[in-house]
Amino acid sequence: LIHFYKRNMNTFILSTSRLLNRELRTKAYESKPLLQKVIGAPVSYHGIHTSSLLYCKVPSEIKPPEKKQVELADDSFMKRLYKKVFSGVPKSKLKATGYILLTYCSQQQSLEHFFKTFDMPDTFYSWFLVTELHVWMLSCRLMHEEEYGRITRNSMVEALWKDCEMRAKSLADIPSSLRSKQILSLSEEFQAALFIYDEGILGGDKELANALWRRFFLCMREQEENQVPDMEKVALLVNYVRATMKMLDNTDAASLLIRPSIQWVPLETSFHAIANE
Fold this sequence. Notes:
With 277 residues, the protein is mainly alpha-helical. It has helices at residues 17-26, 77-86, 91-106, 111-117, 124-142, 146-171, 176-201, 205-217, 231-249, 254-258, 267-276; strands spanning 2-6, 12-16, 44-45, 48-49, 54-56. It is built from 11 helices and 5 strands. A 3-stranded antiparallel β-sheet has the order 2-1-5. α3 packs across α6, α5 (124-142) runs antiparallel to α6 (146-171) and α9 (231-249) packs across α11.
């Protein structure tokens, strides 16, 4: 144990038990108050009460002092600058990035080539299937960025439903209740499509082809019965998804979250790759 004892009114000396006992044997301290005792009951020793010894914690029990962060004045220029530099990417920036990325999914892809190559009818639902596929591929890449990617993905999906509502308003003059019901039905299909595509991408080309056939090709022409899959087109879409996912995996986070810019893989490249094989 380590103790403190008081030599005079303004001096406290650090001492161990052995040194303190030696000091007590050689010197007389009559009626000098000591600070605190380690032992429970006061004991008289050469006229000195050891009940006032002050207990000092061993080094293992000593905790370093807590470091206080420097606090800046409220609503100051330095505080705003500090938050802007050291607080990471602002949430408002990530939400804006989600809306920008949705435009790449809904407008920047070669929509006409998709309609022509896969014999898709020029309808709102065909546009949604193509956009949904690209939103899913981009969402898979964003989830690698943890919290930043999650915020951006949620904002992109939110922008998707707003875009769907605006396009539905411009296509037909229908009651808002019916339009909301149709968009709700699309959202349920979207949730199911995410599970179907996720299951397909985790497997081989056979599983991915099955997922694309179930969601992309069958839903395109629901009224046609006994549809026979065109294996060349299914293989083309499988190759396109694989090439696009590889391109997104090689894209750095800054090109997605800070300066969103995506160059989709040309569909013709996938077609020629399948034809050459």
